[in-house]
């Protein structure tokens, strides 16, 4: 009977209607001939069978103690740094105001129907030149539109072979919100060539989402490839591939006429005049890493490695990071220069409580971005200003025992002796509720928010890394050999600190898990 029930469950799961996102932004004449409607992932069926007790989870992951970090310089294309994230929500204006007032971000530009766009509205929030957040909402579709009729989702996307950030179709936005709530739709990365990045990813088995599209860097006008390649033309190119779930990895690149130090303007956006882009009042300066939750970590990791060439930067198992109640497995993928870091988590099973990652996946309607780590110039001052603003809630302060253990650990690992951290910093960390960890190269200071919106899904991490200074010659070793011929000849800014300095908080996971579990129990999520 169990086998019969399992077969019936498999039949039901594989007879799902293809979602809009299976064909997102790809016109019919560009769709691969072998593209099929996305079936329910096999790993989801695996999870359901595990819950039913039919089989146990395989444990073939490498614990962090046995992991040896290497950088094979294997990127398939030239990767520079994170550029932006895009959040899709129901009300862009109120969400943007929440992030402005709660985190000190400044409104820089907007894009809506008055700017020539009728399907969505989007606001660009910024801190300096390194931290950009797009907040996008679909506008209410008119009654009787294609969205309200069967098949309207696919019809509304026909012929769209390119677009710019801040564009979301009526069906796409409505479906995304219904499935995920307020969530991150795209992770933007600046690359040497968005055309080359897209081509290499698709060649490596990636799923194309948005074909490369060129825009005039000043007017935002759509350009063809020939015009964009004219000598002296100031242009930017944008393309997208699927990262995981309904999240896109968005590539942004500039023509040789745009210097590396020049700000890239989003096509079609109008400057709002409400800020000049200088550092925010909360001392936030850029993105450190973007973490995704998936059902099957190894499948996602293998697909992204083949697609991008990113290498494994770190790996953690449930034994490294879990509590007695729940756990996770995690791996970190990194670009050659290790400025683009993509941790990936999966839930563990067979514990007394449901894994936090499983809770996320259920509330999010599948894989997605769990949290974004934001670099702070001074994390203690940032935390004080966030608390004073009173809009974004931080996780409860750790127990006193945690800081006593941390002091002993820092002394044991000679972090204090080597001058990477001092007693005053540890006292300040305890006073502000900041977590402290280290690896063999540097120190990590971190603190987390509670979920930012209604669902217990997306949250932010604030982070400060200390140590790991790079010599001036280090920047040249992180380039992608396959893309050296495409460079403009201008020297890139020298990276002052190695990516991932201080690790990813392995020593803090247990304390963090306790706080998350307390939060979930208080809110009734588990």
TrEMBL record:
Compositional bias (Low complexity): 472-482
User: What is this enzyme's EC?
Assistant: 1.13.11.27
Q: Which species does the entry assign this protein to?
A: Chromera velia CCMP2878
Which cofactors does the annotated protein need, by name? Fe cation
Segments carrying the region annotation (Disordered) are 140-165, 469-507
EC class (word): oxidoreductase
Q: What is the lineage of its organism?
A: Eukaryota, Sar, Alveolata, Colpodellida, Chromeraceae
List each copy of the VOC domain by range: 286-450
Pathway this chain belongs to: Amino-acid degradation; L-phenylalanine degradation; acetoacetate and fumarate from L-phenylalanine: step 3/6
Instruction: Name the family the entry cites.
Output: Belongs to the 4HPPD family.
Q: Look up the signal peptide feature and give its range.
A: 1-22
Protein name, as recorded: 4-hydroxyphenylpyruvate dioxygenase
